[in-house]
Design brief:
Elements: E1 3-9, E2 14-16, E3 19-21, E4 27-32, E5 36-40, H1 47-54, E6 62-67, E7 70-71, H2 77-86, E8 87-90, H3 94-97, H4 104-114, H5 123-133, H6 150-163, E9 168-172, H7 180-197, E10 200-205, H8 208-214, E11 217-222, E12 225-231, H9 232-237, H10 242-248, H11 289-293, E13 299-302, E14 305-307, H12 311-315
Parallel strand pairs: 5-10, 5-11, 8-9, 9-10
Antiparallel strand pairs: 1-4, 1-6, 2-3, 6-7, 11-12, 12-14, 13-14
The chain binds iron/sulfur cluster and magnesium ion.
Iron/sulfur cluster (SF4) is lined by residues 241-242, 278, 280-281, 284, 286-287, 291, 296, 309-311.
């Protein structure tokens, strides 16, 4: 079985530029080859931190990341470089990850040239091919990033990622900054690429509606912990965790375009000083005494469906 497994334990928060790195506490996440896993939660829940750890660009203080069954930290030399290249991350704002002084052709072609994935002689053709795959016109390759729209810039970022022949792509809010119509185009592109190149995705989003359309499996995080995990249809048909239920009530459904007013009540507490017991208890409409003192374990409640809520013990 070819799989990617990340087991990550307790990452303590530390300030990193203006952004805060949030704690990820005892998360065990497996992404199987060919799968699309949606990772959902409010901002500050630790999903970006988890994504960076999984992509190998941020170390976990404890725990391991396994790539095709081998520990990533132990892969050295050519194996290590290949493993790193095969995981690519696509961020929300392509402008901050595209060198403004480089032409698109160099942005896309630099890494594959360095890593020997293409030769000088085939370089131009190689770049053209990546641009076409990302839905761009190769005749624009002499331009600079600022000469493109937000959606086109995201396509440049995608072409750059594809150019190193990845297997696994971590998308962190990759469509969040785009207009809804452009969002749909980019999401469709991700799905076409999955089919054509047999890609595996970890798709991180605060928006359950975005994740619904493309994920095989959905993982819901709250304050650094996974609270629910299930096949996509299962999460949307039978959400178990009160937090998931609250998140879902905020997604305008196709069958009932009315927005529910239930939603998630209250402010998200600080991830660096989370409430004891079940982290969700101050906002949970079903909280009872046990929730304030005891951490609920992530338990299997149906095949492939896990949830961390004490209610499953009392009503089960
Ligand atoms: Fe709500 Fe308690 Fe379940 Fe937490 S464990 S989600 S507080 S009912
Ligand atoms: Mg984030």
């Amino acid at each position: 079985k070819l799989d990617f497994t990340g087991k990550l334990l307790k990452k303590l928060g530390a300030p990193m530029k203006e952004e805060t790195v949030h704690a990820v506490d005892n998360v065990d996440l497996t992404v199987t080859k060919g799968e699309v896993v949606g990772l959902v939660g409010e901002s500050g829940c630790g999903k970006s931190t988890l994504g960076r750890m999984v992509a190998g660009i941020m170390p976990a203080t404890e725990g391991t990341i396994r790539w095709h069954g081998k520990e990533l930290a132990e892969l050295t030399g050519a194996d290590g470089r290949r493993a790193k290249l095969q995981t690519q991350m696509i961020f929300q704002d392509p402008m901050s990850s595209l060198n403004p002084r480089l032409r698109v052709a160099d942005i896309i072609g630099e890494a594959p040239l360095v890593h020997g994935l293409t030769k000088r002689a085939d370089y131009e053709q190689y770049v053209d091919e990546q641009m076409r795959r990302a839905g761009m016109d190769p005749s624009l390759k002499r331009r600079y990033p600022h000469q493109f729209s937000g959606g086109q810039r995201q396509r440049i970022g995608i072409a750059r990622a594809l150019a190193v022949q990845p297997e696994f792509i971590v998308c962190d809010e990759s469509v969040a900054a785009l207009d809804v119509s452009i969002q749909a185009q980019i999401l469709n592109l991700f799905m076409d690429l999955r089919r054509d190149l047999n890609l595996t995705y970890l798709f991180i989003s605060h928006d359950l509606g975005v994740v619904e359309h493309l994920s095989d499996r959905v993982v819901i995080m709250y304050l650094g912990r996974v609270v629910e995990e299930a096949p996509s249809e299962e999460v949307f048909a039978r959400p178990n965790h009160p937090y998931t239920q609250a998140l879902l009530s905020e997604v305008p459904r196709i069958e009932a375009r009315k927005k529910s007013f239930a939603g998630v009540k209250g402010e998200i507490p600080s991830p660096l000083n989370p409430p004891p017991g079940c982290h969700f208890h101050p906002r949970c409409p079903h909280a009872f005494e046990r929730c304030r003192v005891e951490r609920p374990a992530l338990k299997t409640i149906a095949p492939g469906h896990r949830s961390a809520c004490h209610l499953n013990d009392t009503t089960g």
